[in-house]
Write a structure and sequence with these properties.
Elements (H helix, E strand, L loop, with lengths): L1 H36 L2 E5 L3 E11 L7 E4 L2 E6 L2 E6 L1 E8 L3 E2 L1 E7 L4 E4 L5 E2 L4 E7 L4 E4 L5 E6 L2 E6 L6 E5 L3 H5 L12 E7 L5 E10 L2 E11 L7 E3 L12 E12 L2 E12 L5 E3 L10 E4 L5 E5 L4 E6 L4 E6 L3 E6 L4 E6 L4 E5 L6 E4 L5 E7 L5 E8 L2 E8 L2
Parallel strand pairs: 2-9
Antiparallel strand pairs: 1-2, 2-5, 3-4, 3-6, 6-8, 7-10, 11-33, 12-13, 13-14, 14-15, 16-17, 17-18, 18-19, 20-21, 21-22, 23-24, 24-25, 25-26, 27-28, 28-29, 29-30, 31-32, 32-33
Amino acid sequence: MKKMKEFFRDVNVRVVLINGFMALTVVVVAGVMLLVTMGYGIKVDEEVRIERVGMLQIKSVPTRANLYIDGEKTTYKTEYTKTMPEGEYEIELKKEGYIGWKRKVKIVAGVLSSFEYPRLFPVESAAEMVAESAMDMDFRVSPSRRRIFTSSGGSMSVVDIAGGKWTEREVELPKAIIDLTAGMSPAWEDSRLGNVVWSGDETKVVAQFLRADEDGWVHEDYLEIDFYDLANTKVVDMMGNPEFAKEWYRVVLKEFEEVEGDELVMKAGYFIERANSAEAVPVKCKMGFSPKEMFANHTGALAVFRGEAGEFCVYDVAEKKSYNYVVSDATFGGWLDDFMFWGVDEAEQLVVWDFDGENKRVVVKDAVGAVGFATIAEGGRFLYYSVVSETGVRVLREKLY
C-alpha cells in the first residue's frame, strides 16, 4: 500500500511538472508572438536582447531562387518569410540560368513587407513561331491573359493561349451585322482596332474600330461580339463603357485641405476618382507633369499616369503609395502581366521592368524592331510577342521555365 501511494505521488509530481512546463512554454511562445506583433524580436548572440523587427515575405517565379541580403548569400530560398531588424536592405534573388532580380527594401518594425511578384527570366531561350500574317494585325490581350482578340483587314479571331497553347478561332460575323452597313463593306474592314473591353468571363468583347480620314484615325464604330453566340453580336453605340466593363478610374486636378502643423492649408493636386463612385482618392505625389494617359492593371490595384517624355507615376490604390520614375530609353508597350511593363529599347530589344521602375532587364536580345504586343500567358510559363517587319507579322513564343 505504501509503494502504491509513493507511485501515485511520483506520478502526480510528474504531471504537475509537465503541466507547469507546458504552461511556461505557452506563456513564452505567446510572449514572443506578442513581441513580434508589436515590432520586437529577441536576438541571441553574446547576450540576449530585444530589438525592433519587421517581417519580410518574398516569392518568385520560378521558385527556389537563392536569397541574398546586402550582397551576402543566405541559406534561404523562395518562397520565404523571415523576421528582420528594422532598417534598409538590398534584397537580391539569383537562380542558375536566369537573370536575377534586385531591389532595396525598407523593413519597418511590426510591418509585413511582402513581395509576391518577382520574376526571373532565362538568360537564354529559344523563340518558336506560332502564327504569321502578311497583313498588319492588331492584338488585345484579355485581363486574365488567357485569350487574345486579333483583327486584321476585317478578319477577327479569338486565340486561347493558356498553358502554352495557340488555338485560334476565326470570328465569322453573322450576315445581319454586315447588312447594317446598307450594302457597303463593313466599316471595320478598313479600320484599325482601338480599345477592347472584355466581359468578366471573357466570352464577349466590345471592340472599338477607328476609321481614317484627312484628320487621322478619328471615326469610331463599336461592335459587341459574343464569341459563342454570334446571333447576339451587334453594332452598338458605345461612347462610354459597356455594362460588363470593370470599375475604371479617371484623374482630375482638384483642391484639397491638408493639415500642416496647427494650420489647415488648401492645396491642389491630382486625384484618382473611381468613375462609378463618389469616392475620390488623392494622389500623394508631386507628379511634375500633366499625364497624357491613365490606365490600370486588370485588378484595379495599380493606377498608372504616363507623361509625354516617359514620366511615370504608378499609384497603389490600396496602399495609397506612389512610385515616380522616368523611362526615356525605351518605347513603352504596355502591361506584360499584372506587375510588369514591357517596351522596346534603342537597340530594338524587348525590355521589361517592374511597376515601380525597378529591375529593368533585356529579355529578348535579338533585334525585334517594332513589337505589336507582348504578354506572359496565364500560368506564367510562356512569353508571347509579335514582331512587325516589311514582310508582315510573326507571333513568337518562348518558354520561361
